[in-house]
Write a structure and sequence with these properties.
CATH architecture of the largest domain: Sandwich
Shape: elongated
Structural class: alpha+beta
Radius of gyration: 26 Å
CATH topology of the largest domain: Immunoglobulin-like
Oligomer: single chain
Strand content: 35-45%
CATH superfamily of the largest domain: Immunoglobulins
Number of helices: 2
Number of strands: 7
Strand order of the largest sheet: 4-3-6-7
Largest sheet: 4 strands, antiparallel
Number of domains: 2
CATH class of the largest domain: Mainly Beta
Length: about 120
């Protein structure tokens, strides 16, 4: 058998194809799936007269950090799909919230505004 005919044998074909692929740098790569979109909703409520924002979300694959009013410091880290922010304030107020995955801070939800 000649050298060329050995390369065409099934056992050698995969090695040959991988080598050719690496040489040409045109290997087919499986793209990473995009992260699931996190959708956040918020509702204004009162707890004993104090403002409380009830937040819930879907689409996170793990724990999330909850951010309020554009802060870079998380208000809380939550492993579930809901959180209540007892603000300690009374009367008219507006707060904005966003949640981001703990392991992937670039995967964040929409920003919601909660008005009291």
């Amino acid at each position: 058998m000649t050298r060329n005919s050995q390369l065409l044998q099934p056992a050698h074909h995969d090695q040959w194809q991988r080598r050719l692929c690496q040489q040409r740098q045109r290997c087919a790569r499986t793209p990473e799936p995009p992260p699931e979109v996190i959708v956040l909703t918020g509702t204004a409520t009162k707890v004993k007269g104090f403002n409380a924002a009830q937040l819930s979300w879907s689409g996170a694959s793990g724990a999330v950090n909850v951010f309020r009013d554009g802060s870079t410091v998380p208000l809380a880290t939550v492993s579930g799909t809901s959180y209540t922010d007892n603000t300690g304030q009374r009367g008219p107020a507006t707060y904005t919230y966003q949640v981001c995955e703990v392991g992937d801070p670039s995967n964040c939800s929409n920003v919601v505004t909660v008005n009291f």
